[in-house]
Amino acid sequence: MLRRPRFEWNPNENKLVVENEIWNEFIQDHRHLRYFRDKQFLNFNRWAYCFVC
Predict the structure, then answer these.
(1) The predicted structure's pLDDT at residue 40
(2) SS3 call for 10
(3) Residue 52's CB: how many other CB atoms inside 10 A?
(4) Is the CB of residue 49 less than 8 Å from the CB of residue 40?
(5) Please, what is the Cα angle at 13 between 9 and 14, to 5 degrees?
(6) Strand, coil or helix: what is 39?
(7) Is residue 20 over pLDDT 70?
């Protein structure tokens, strides 16, 4: 999702930031991801390190 235009990452809250209109368009084709709208990824930096390094 972060590679999509207008999707951003809030490092302070560890969650996605996107306008409602863009999100609603996105989940039309990706309904299985709808639960990630306001989900915090508390260990994001650790997981990113594991998969990038």
Answers:
(1) 84
(2) strand
(3) 6
(4) no
(5) 50
(6) coil
(7) yes
